[in-house]
Each structure stands twice: as C-alpha cells, then as structure tokens.
C-alpha cells in the first residue's frame, strides 16, 4: 500500500472519528418520569438554543431507578428527571447519579432544594420545580381556621371528614417525611394515627379524586398537590367550574414552619456518556425561560430564585401574594421515607 493511500485512509479514519465525537456531543439521552405534554416545549427550546438533540425514554420514578440499576455501566442515560424528593434521594443513595459542579445551578437553585454537597462540592441532584401540598375544604361545612395547619388533620375535631390518597404514595410519603422532620418521630406517629381516625373513607384514587370527593360531599377536607387544583381552576368545563366554586384552599402552617413543597428534579446519570451536555440541559431547565414553562405549562412553582410567574390559577390560590414554604433540606425528607413507611404500617394507614 502506497504512502499516499495510507495517508488518505488515516485521514478518513480521523475524520470519521471526529464526526463521531461531534455527533456524540450533540446528543443528550434523557430518562424522564415527567409525563406532561407541555414539556415538549422545553425540549424544543433546549435543542433550538444549543443544537443538542434529546433522545427520551419515559417511565415512572421507580421504573427509571430499576432500569438504571439493571443497565449498570452500559446505561445510555445522561440525564434523569424524577418527580419526587424521596426517589431522588434513593437514586443518590444507590449510587445512580454523579455529582455535578455547576455555578449556574448552585446560584439558581436554593440550597434546601438540592442534595447535600459532597466533600468535593459536587451536588447529586437539583430540584427544578416545586408543588405545594395544600388542604382543600368544603367552604360551607368547614371553617378555614380548622384546617390551616397539617397538625389539624389529626385533630379529633375533624373526625370522619378527610379524603386522602394512599399513605404510601410518594407525594404523601414526602409530606409525612417533612412532618416527621418538623415534629419528631414520636409525635408524627401519633399525628398519623389521628389522621387515620379522621378519614371519611379508605384511601383511594389520585389527588384530583380527593378534590372531587369534597365537592361531591363524600368528605369535607382533602389533601392535594397544587398543580392538580390549578388544572381544575384553569378548566372551562362546567363540571370543573362547579367543583372549584364549592371548595376553598389553604396553604398550611403559614404561622409556623410553612407549607410542605415536594420537587421534580434532575440529575446526571452515573455512567453518562455525554456529561457536559447533561449539565447544559439541567442548567437550561433552571433558566427563567424553562422555569416559566414549568409554571405556565404544568402549573408548578419555579424552584429557581427570582423567577416571576403569571399563571392565573397559581396567583388566584395565593391571592397574588407569595406563601411561606418550609425550608428544611428536601434531602432530609427523602431520608425519612423508610421510618415513615414503618409508622404507616403500625397505625394501619393503607
């Protein structure tokens, strides 16, 4: 083989290699538990801004964590999006994420809405949006003052009045984990026992079903994430308008520790093949543009500092004023999950 031919072959090989690297740099592989059609605008916006294509796999939180474990180092995942603090915490504990060092993310996301930094300053996951867990009530039968704290959900004065979904659902596990962090394990278990005694019926359905249960007279008090209520408030369907007109909403514990907020958050997969692109994607999700998509598209509260929203339903819920949210580390909420589940078993909370 002539030297000229060898040189040409070498050049072709290098070009092919460079092309492969270039192609790799323009892709980010996403495993997402966010099943919201409005998020498509986020993905389109990121690709338009960066030229990086998103390849997406959808599953629920538990399915994504199981898949990452099964795939191990062969996993193609770069970014993981989950919709619960406890699941993000579990992914961190199981070693499924790699620590991220990003001034953009650290500056944007409050410290209590991200994982505890490692010794090197790396952060395993970041909360990218929040959803407050509020109390709705029958405006005719219940006084707001009787439901303006989480503690009152376990008070005998509310016996037989409460609808709530399964205690073991991640949204409730995180709420109960937060209450445990505030009250201590012994008092929290006594509170859970009182909550069970106050149920109007056995736990069933999702958050929207609890709201509808109040409107239908099945119960008088319910617990829900704010974005479920916001969907009903933004609906023009007569039946949804009728539901909203029958209920009131309260952000609990405004005079004490603040309303519990859970997060949807993101992490870089431990075996990410495109880690730089993964960080760029998370940084984009913390930008004002993306934060407003979360707020206006899926009725979530922004987690990034200084972002103003114009979602009419979220504004109506709070009277256009900010509400006090708890500031305990969200990672502590996740860490309490196991002990909370044991408490639920002991008090008979399904």
What can you tell me about this protein's structure?
The protein has helices spanning 3-25, 40-50, 61-71, 85-93, 103-108, 170-183, 185-197, 207-215, 226-234, 238-246, 275-285, 288-298, 312-318, 330-335, 337-347; strands at residues 27-32, 53-58, 79-82, 97-98, 126-138, 162-163, 221-225, 247-250, 261-269, 301-302. With 350 residues, the chain is an alpha/beta fold. Strands 1, 2, 3, 4, 5, 6, 7, 8, 9 and 10 form a ten-stranded mixed β-sheet that branches. The longest helix is centred in the N-terminal third of the chain and has 23 residues, at 3-25. The relative contact order is 0.19. The model is unreliable at 2-24 (pLDDT under 50).
Biggest β-sheet description: 10 strands, mixed
Total beta strand runs: 10
Number of helices: 15
Percent strand equals 15-25%
Counting helices, strands and paired strands, the structural category is alpha/beta
Give the overall average pLDDT: 91
The run of helices and strands is HEHEHEHEHEEHHHEHHEEHHEHHH
Query: Gyration radius, to the nearest Å?
Result: 23 Å
Low-confidence stretches: 2-24
The helix content is 40-55%
Apparent shape: globular
């Amino acid at each position: 083989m002539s030297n000229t031919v060898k040189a040409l072959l070498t050049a072709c090989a290098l070009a092919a290699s460079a092309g492969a690297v270039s192609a790799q740099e323009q892709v980010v592989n996403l495993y997402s538990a966010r099943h919201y059609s409005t998020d498509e605008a986020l993905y389109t916006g990121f690709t338009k801004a960066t030229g990086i294509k998103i390849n997406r796999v959808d599953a629920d939180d538990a399915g994504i964590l199981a898949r990452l474990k099964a795939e191990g180092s062969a996993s193609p995942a770069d970014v993981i999006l989950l919709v619960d603090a406890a699941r993000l915490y579990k992914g961190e504990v199981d070693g499924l994420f790699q620590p991220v060092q990003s001034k953009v993310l650290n500056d944007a996301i409050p410290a209590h809405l991200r994982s505890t930094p490692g010794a090197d300053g790396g952060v395993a996951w970041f909360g990218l949006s929040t959803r407050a867990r509020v109390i709705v009530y029958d405006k005719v039968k219940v006084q707001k003052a009787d439901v303006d704290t989480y503690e009152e959900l376990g008070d005998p004065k509310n016996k037989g009045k409460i609808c709530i979904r399964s205690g073991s659902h991640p949204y409730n596990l995180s709420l109960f984990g937060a209450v445990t962090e505030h009250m201590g394990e012994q008092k929290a278990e006594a509170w859970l026992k009182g909550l069970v005694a106050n149920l109007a019926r056995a736990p069933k359905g999702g958050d929207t079903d609890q709201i509808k249960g109040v409107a239908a007279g099945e119960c008088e008090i319910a617990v829900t994430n704010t974005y479920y209520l916001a969907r009903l408030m933004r609906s023009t369907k007569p039946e949804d308008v009728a539901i909203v007109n029958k209920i009131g909403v309260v952000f609990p514990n405004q005079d004490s520790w603040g309303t519990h907020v859970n997060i949807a958050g993101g992490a870089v997969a431990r075996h990410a093949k495109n880690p730089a692109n993964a960080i760029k994607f998370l940084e984009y999700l913390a930008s004002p543009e993306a934060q407003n998509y979360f707020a206006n598209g899926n009725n979530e509260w922004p987690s990034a500092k200084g972002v103003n929203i114009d979602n009419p339903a979220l504004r109506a819920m709070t009277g256009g004023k900010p509400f006090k949210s708890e500031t305990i580390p969200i990672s502590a909420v996740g860490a309490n999950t196991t002990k909370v589940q044991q408490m639920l078993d002991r008090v008979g909370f399904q």
